[in-house]
Amino acid sequence: MTPKNYLDFINNYKRALATNRSTIQDTVGRLSGGLEKLIQAAVEVDAMQKELSQAKVVVEQATKECNELLEVCRGRGADATAWCWPACQSFVAPPAGPLQPPNPLQAMPSCHNSC
Q1: pTM, full prediction
Q2: Domain boundaries along the sequence of the chain
Q3: What is the CA 32 to chain-centroid distance, rounded?
C-alpha cells in the first residue's frame, strides 16, 4: 500500500464516519421525540383513567337511583305519570361539575321513557 492510497483510505473512512454519525444523530433525535410523545401519552392516559374511575362511580350511583325510582313508578299504577314525571325531571337535572352529560334525558332514557 502506498502512502497516497493510505491517505485516501483514511479520508474515505472519515467521510463515511461523518455520514454515519449524522444519520445516527438524526435517528436518535426522531426516537427521542417519539419517546417523549409516548411518555406524555402515558401521563394523559393515567389522568383519563382516574377521571373515568370517578365517572364510573357517579354513573353507577345514578343508575341505581334511576332503577329505584323506576320501581317506585311501576308500583304507583294509575297515578304514576302525575307522581313520576316531576320526580324524573328532578332526578335527571344536570349535575354540577365536569361530568355533566350533553343531554340528561338522553343519558338516562330508561327513567325518562318509563315515567
Answers
A1: 0.50
A2: 3-92+103-114
A3: 24
Which amino acid belongs to residue 96? A
Torsion angle in degrees (nearest 10) through CA of 88, 93, 98, 103: 80
Residue that the C-alpha cell 461523518 belongs to: 18
Maximum Cα–Cα distance across the chain? 111
CA distance 59 to 101: 10
Residues 6+ apart with CB under 8 A from 99: 54, 55, 58
For 49-86, the pLDDT digits (tens) are 999 999 999 999 988 988 888 887 777 765 666 666 66
Tell me if 108 sits within 8 A of 58, measured CB to CB: no
**Contact present, 115 and 81 (Cβ < 8 Å):** yes
Look up cell 337511583; give the residue. Answer: 65
**Which of 8-12, 28-32, 36-40, 107-111 is least confident?**
107-111
Q: What is the dihedral of CA 74, 75, 78, 80, to 10 degrees?
A: -60
The distance from CA 37 to its chain's CA centroid, rounded to whole angstroms, is: 15
